[in-house]
Amino acid sequence: MSVGIIMLVHTAFDRAEQVARHWAASGCPIVFHVDENVQDHAYHAFVSAMSDLEDVRFVKRHRCEWGTWGLVAATQAASEKMLQDFPDVRHVYLTSGACLPLRPVQELFDYLDERPHTDFIESATTADVPWTVGGLDRERFLLRFPFSWRRQRFLFDAYVKFQRLVGYKRKIPNGIVPHMGSQWWCLTRQTLSAILEDPERKRYDRYFSKVWIPDESYFATLSRLYSRQIESRSLTLSKFDYQGKPHMFYDDHLQLLRRSDCFVARKIWPFANRLYDAFLTDQEGAMKRTEPNPAKIDRIFAKAVDRRTRGRRGLYMQSRFPAEGRENGVTCAPYSVFEGFSDLFENFEPWLAKTTGARVHGHLFAPDRVEFSDGQTVMNGALSDSAKLRDYNKLAFLTSLIWNTRGERQCFQLGPMDEIEDIEWDITKDPNAQISVITGAWAVGLFKSNRNFADIRKEAARLQQIESTHLNALRSEWA
Amino acid sequence: MAEFIEAPMEPLQTIIDEIGKTRRKALAEAPKLTDLTGFPQFLQSLKNQGMHPYLMGDFAIDAGMPESQEPKPKPYLIK
After folding, report:
1. If we measure between CA atoms, which residue out of A115, A137, A108 comes closest to residue A230?
2. pLDDT by residue (tens digit) across A438-469?
3. Which of A40, A45, A120, A248 minimizes the number of CB atoms within 10 Å of its CB?
């Protein structure tokens, strides 16, 4: 009894050969399918490179484009060849050229020997999975998809729209229930041969050849008809990014992959030398005998996706410059805004700094310059005190200040004499802002000023108007 | 404003507590209130000029500002 390996290869033949020799060294027969898009000389070079191995077969090449029937046809051809040429094979493991065995092959043998009738294939009904990206979940089984999504996007979209418009719905043959899952399965001879020798196979093939991404559903659906025991999970660890594309593993993922306890992982970057070196050496790199446990590293990947899509609060950078409203918070930490306090108290700023240990700035939005604490002209992160630079984008200035000084509470003064017009709403809406206002305290400054009373009167009217508008903002439903 | 200077320590304490989160100490020292002698009269002058200052609250001219005439931090001590 043995395990047969099907490898679907379309690139990085040196790596495919390396992995194939690893399997072969443990006695696994291998059937290759090479994408028809591969140039002939590369194909023949690969065939001759593998010619010294006895239990290696190549099957007729199909054009394998992502999301099309070609991948299923290739898998079918390779499976038939495997079952026919290697009667000892009990489990057939479908892999790609970018798959890498993580545990000694013998451990996989032992694992499957203990579960001789189990089919490992991820298989779930569409209603229950969150995987589908792009909205075509149920519809992928009910519409026809004769056009390539990659090369004929316009026709693809137009035809989908058209079918929706006329309310077209395909009939699913024999009332089978469409299931979906990762195409990297490991099936028993019994189940696989039952699928391939099914008298109704022509009908199924015709149906699935117009389904969207049939390689994710053909075997997942049909194995439900015949399997004695389905374990709905893949023995191959694969991760998808937030766009639904397979995640590449690099050298940095070495420890992560070790921890997964999975038998095989994909996709491996062809130039990840450390990974290939570490996992293709025999028992030395062996991991302990435990159940595969991809969940162990799920959390890390979930975090990575979260970092990619939501980013960090209050951090903008060249790789992440979200549109307004999608910032995930405009600032990264709480800060305090004081309005009127420094007018009323002579030593408010030093007092506040002493009492709280926070960094207390003056009027950050003063018209002539940014009043950083202690009269500094440059703040953390090379923030300049130039009013012109600040006014170029006031919100970004505030965001940067709070980010650059994280770990230290920031306080600053604000008042109607400042340039608050296009920043007050941002501060008001920011849940990190702790705003305290003593209304009318700006009048103390005028009261102490040595100006003509007519000017004072005019200025008081202006400031009162500004503060009144500002207070309306603070009291609005958004604040 | 008028309301605030009647009893400034309470709101200050609240604000400081919010900043300090973990440390809940009573304030030992108050900031020094600026001298507001004549401020009510100043506001009245604005009113007399037809400008209506309302955001400061009510400052009674006759009563003056007893605390502000000579700022004494002592009465604000909270222990």
Report:
1. A115
2. 999 999 999 998 889 889 999 999 999 999 99
3. A40
| Other CB atoms within 10 Å distance of the CB of residue A268 | 26
pLDDT score, position B54:
87
Residues in chain B with CB shorter than 8 Å from the CB of A345 are: 31-34
CA atoms of A294 and A235, how far apart (whole Å): 9
Give the per-residue pLDDT at B73.
42
Q: pTM score, two decimals?
A: 0.71
Question: With contacts defined as CB-CB under 8 Å, which chain B residues touch A441?
Answer: 1, 56
Cα separation, B10 vs B6, in Å, equals 10
Question: Chain B: nearest CA to A449, how far in angstroms?
Answer: 11
Q: Indicate the angle between helix axes A70-85 and A189-196, nearest 10 degrees.
A: 120
* Closest by CA position to A341, among listed B29, B24, B5, B73: B5
Other beta carbons less than 10 A from residue A134's beta carbon: 11
- ipTM tops the 0.85 cut: no
DSSP A341-353: HHHHBTTHHHHHH
Render pLDDT for A333-382 as a digit per residue (tens, 0 to 9).
999 999 999 999 999 999 999 888 899 999 999 999 999 999 999 999 99
HSE, CB side, 13 Å, CA atoms: give it for residue A289: 8
Straight-line distance from the first to the last Cα atom of chain B, in angstroms, rounded to the nearest whole number? 25
Residue B24 in contact with partner chain A when CB distance is under 8 A: no
Q: Look-up: residue for tokens 């639904």?
A: A244
The full length of chain B comes to 79
Taking the Cβ of residue A434 and every Cβ of chain B, the question of whether any pair is shorter than 8 Å is answered with yes
Q: How many residues does chain A have?
A: 479
* Residue A231 CA: distances (Å) to CA of A72, A185, A308, A460: 21, 10, 32, 77
Convert the pLDDT of each residue in A369-418 to its tens digit.
Answer: 999 999 999 999 999 999 999 999 999 999 999 999 999 999 999 999 99
Count of C-beta atoms within a 10 Å radius of residue A88: 12
DSSP-derived 3-state class of residue A68: coil
